[in-house]
Specification:
This protein is of the alpha+beta class. The protein has helices at about 10-20, 65-80, 105-120, 170-175, 185-195, 200-205, 220-230, 245-255, 260-265, 280-290; strands spanning about 45-55, 85-95, 120-130, 135-145, 160-165, 210-215, 235, 270-275, 295-300, 305-310. It is built from ten helices and ten strands. The strands form two sheets. Strands 6-8-5-9-7-10 form a six-stranded mixed beta sheet. Strands 1-4-2-3 form a four-stranded mixed beta sheet.
Length: about 325
């Protein structure tokens, strides 16, 4: 029988009141020091971790529901990049004592909604207090068929370069929310910043077809550079082919300088991947079945691990930075 939250010390009462409803079978009702988990037979574990801090990864006044969902989704995006299916997660929350009374309940509401959507549950974690700001960390567990995980290092010269969805909405959405950029489609851009779309079905569909993959979190150009370094080859990224949402395209049409931000701003959480050119039709077919739009935006080429970004005239596009860095 679960303990009555009223009779528990403060931290444990908070866990019982808010987090227990997120727990799955392996979590042991969040009443022990660790979880017990039996991985599915014949599957390999995939683990990843991401942290989010108020004022860095989300705005302090963002709705708590979207903060919880974003925390889970950026980690699910890491699973998608490996072609893995979600299994469960561990979470640590560092929360100021002066948070609004309903903040944590709404945060958990968001997590509960996405647990139901993506089919996983919390296994455990830790809750501590902090003088601020809110700091959150999540470790995700997934599974994949042994030997089938997508990796960063397999691209070869001549391979096609693909990306899912649209690029730039997250970076533009942040500026909209900060009041730095007016936009008729502010709602769409803000939602794309607050609620990434982990491409789990696409990642799994690309198993055995894509030679390399990763998710775009720190900027398209910078993350493509990671693929190039892992593979030991270069890449040409055709800026005119990069897919933009109608909202982003309208802003870029009004101010072409914003294209550089779309290419380097990050917070896209789309899949960037390499596939042999003879598999282009298969890529499109599998993406359609997975319900994820994909666009061929360039190619890998022999040479140093550098990213070349020509404009519509073939001249190098001027980019003020390659992408986001914490340090």
């Amino acid at each position: 029988m679960a303990e009555d939250p009223v009779s528990l010390p403060g931290e444990f009462a908070l866990i019982a009141r808010h987090f227990r409803r997120l727990a799955g079978p392996g979590a042991l009702d969040l009443s022990d020091d660790a979880a017990l988990l039996d991985p599915p037979a014949g599957r390999q574990l995939v683990l990843a971790a991401d942290a989010m801090v108020a004022g860095v990864h989300f705005l302090p006044d963002d709705p708590p529901e979207t903060i919880g969902r974003k925390l889970l989704r950026v980690n699910l995006s890491d699973l998608a990049a490996m072609g893995a299916a979600p299994l469960g997660y561990l979470m640590t929350t560092a929360l100021p004592r002066d948070l609004p009374a309903d903040w944590l309940g709404r945060f958990v509401d968001g997590l509960a909604a996405d647990q139901a959507e993506f089919g996983l549950s919390v296994l455990g974690g830790d809750t501590v207090s902090t003088p601020g700001p809110v700091a959150l960390s999540l470790t995700i567990l997934g599974t994949v068929t042994p030997g089938a995980a997508l990796r960063r290092g397999g691209a070869r010269p001549g391979d096609s370069l693909w990306v899912s969805g649209s690029i730039g909405d997250g970076a533009l959405g942040l500026l909209v929310l900060q009041g730095k950029l007016p936009a008729d489609a502010a709602g769409h851009l803000a939602e794309r910043y607050r609620l990434p779309r982990p491409r789990l079905a696409l990642g799994q569909a690309l198993a055995g077809l894509a030679r390399a993959a990763m998710d775009v979190s720190d900027g398209l150009v910078q993350d493509l550079g990671h693929l190039c370094r892992a593979a030991g080859c270069g890449a040409v990224l055709r800026s005119a082919e990069v897919p933009l949402s109608p909202a982003a395209a309208a802003l870029v049409a009004a101010d072409p300088a914003l294209l550089a931000l779309c290419l380097t701003g990050g917070d896209d959480y789309e899949l960037l991947f390499a596939a042999p050119p003879e598999a282009d039709a298969q890529v499109l077919q599998r993406a359609a079945i997975a319900g994820a739009p994909v666009t061929r935006i360039g190619r890998f080429e022999a040479g140093p691990p550098e990213v070349h970004v020509p404009d519509t005239t073939g001249m190098p596009l001027r980019l003020p930075q390659g992408g986001w860095s914490h340090f």
